[in-house]
Amino acid sequence: MDEEHDLKGQPVPGQVGLTQAQIDADIDVDLDLVHLGYQVVARQKEESFAQVWKQHWRGGVWSLAISMALWMEGYDTNVINSFFALPAFEERFGTLVNGKWSVPAKHQTGLSNTTTCGQVVGLLITGLCQERFGMRKTFIGGMILMIGTIFIAVFATDLSMLYGAEFAMGVPWGMFQTLTTAYASEICPINMRGYLAAWASMGWGGGRFISTGVLRAALTYTGDWGWKMPYAVQWMWPVPLIVIVFFAPESPWWLVRQGRMEDAKAVIKRTARPGYYADNEVAGYAEYMRHTDALDRADRAKGSFIDMFRGTNLRRTEIQMGVWVIQQWNGNAITNLTTEFLQAAGMSTTFSFDFTIISNSLSIVGVAVSWVLLRYTGRRPIYVWGIMSIVILNMLIGILGCLKQTTQTAMGLGVLMTLVNFSFHCNLGPVCYTIVGEIPASRLRAQSIAWGRFVYVCSAIVVNFLNPYMISTTAWNWGAKSGWFWVGAGLVCFAWAYLRMPETAGFSFAELDILFANKVPARKFTKVEIRDQFADGLVSEQTPYIVQESKEGPTHVERGQAAVTV
């Protein structure tokens, strides 16, 4: 880890500052404005939960409204998994086994993974388009595509057409998975971004809750409309969301990266309470964003996918991938087939759907709990110990799976799966979106989140393949014993998170750039003092030199000139 030097060239233990590359990349910065922006960020860090919402509620409302796309996606993606226990769908696309209709495991995995493949295409589109065209245009394009693809599902006549529909709908779903997270990380100040990013998990939990309720109502339908009606309900989302995004502000960080400083200043003012910013503070805040963008470029982050694997961004990409992989492999996946599992244990179809509604409603409560945890606890402990809580619950599920299966054990398993779902939405589910929005360099945020989500959906393909085979009576028939498999997977996730995932709470994007550039170990992010010479007032327009360590010794950098080692 590099050690910072004071203005006399003496080392200051426990401090990190700008690296030589970062200084060279930002020598044309307006120091007075950056210092003013730094003071604005410092003030925002001190704002309480009530204060931050009072001062910045406008930006918060825009982010929450746009995140409704995730309620849509949570509904849509849960429909296909729950269809496998819906009688109308089973009779239309299933086979008769021992006098009972059932969708074969190969088609369960096939339909789920076809959707996932579509999401991969959507993620690629977002990674390429969001930085080029902005969030608003990319979002509206995805919604228009969503409207058209729903037609294929509603009017599907056989499994082949249904496969095509699932792939087509997966494309816009993949687009919205990352658009909303990146926007939440950039539209509002530091103390609000965690809550807004965590809301993504509320969207998926709420969407699943709505979908289970719709499917519960579909039990009373006969014929094809028993499964067509849940698909048709998807049309309720796109048009209102297009209208919302049309009037929403663009990300000020994206505008700065595009060189549109005046537009960025207008958005900064628009998303805060009138009068919040004093004279010239808006310009200072925008200049601080430009300063952060320069630090990104110094760390080989110019905006391409390949930049994610260069320099210090490689470590950030590893963390991004690890956090997303844990979303699939922590053990929460056992709850995806709660309805089918309860039916296999002898519960009625109606009861199993009612039970799933209860479980999904707790998802919403769990995200509310996560907001409390985010206020008083860092991201790292929530994530690390959240994994361990699910490991313990899966161990209990595995133990019950080894006992004689009765109505009592089935109810116990249902309760434990509900607790797994609740725990996931208290910690891993929402906090994931907070972390993945904060970890990347600003110029790579859209691409990095898209890449991480790509890794996530690739993991989902494997998990979606394994899950039905573990549970299905016509395949491996592990039942609740599959909890032991998820115990092992969860322990691997715990080990990685403990060793490699840093704390990101309370740091500005510029401060995170400095921490990564100095290669600070994950467990020491909160134990070092960060000094940004361009922003903290140690350097002014009249200060001719800055002192920074290099391999050859202290380096004097004169403003407006290249670095010279002395």
UniProtKB/TrEMBL annotation:
Q: What is this protein called?
A: Major facilitator superfamily (MFS) profile domain-containing protein
Of the GO CC terms on this record, one is: membrane
Which UniProt key words apply to this protein?
A: Membrane, Transmembrane, Transmembrane helix, Transport
Any single GO molecular-function term of the entry would be:
carbohydrate:proton symporter activity
Q: Which organism is it from?
A: Saitozyma podzolica
- Protein location: Membrane
PROSITE patterns in UniProt: MFS (PS50850)
TM ranges are 138-156, 162-184, 196-215, 235-256, 357-376, 382-403, 450-471, 483-499
Could you tell me which InterPro entries the record lists for this protein?
Answer: MFS_dom, MFS_sugar_transport-like, MFS_Sugar_Transporters, MFS_trans_sf, Sugar/inositol_transpt
> Origin, by domain of life?
Eukaryota
Q: Which family does it belong to?
A: Belongs to the major facilitator superfamily. Sugar transporter (TC 2.A.1.1) family.
Q: Taking every annotated instance into account, which residue ranges of this chain make up the domain Major facilitator superfamily (MFS) profile?
A: 62-505
Taxonomic path:
Eukaryota, Fungi, Dikarya, Basidiomycota, Agaricomycotina
Name the Gene3D superfamilies on file: MFS general substrate transporter like domains (1.20.1250.20)
PANTHER family for this protein = ALPHA-GLUCOSIDE TRANSPORTER, PUTATIVE (AFU_ORTHOLOGUE AFUA_3G01700)-RELATED, PLASTIDIC GLUCOSE TRANSPORTER 4
Its record classes its membrane topology as: Multi-pass membrane protein
Where it mainly occurs, coarsely classed, is membrane
Query: Which reaction does this chain catalyze?
Result: myo-inositol(out) + H(+)(out) = myo-inositol(in) + H(+)(in)
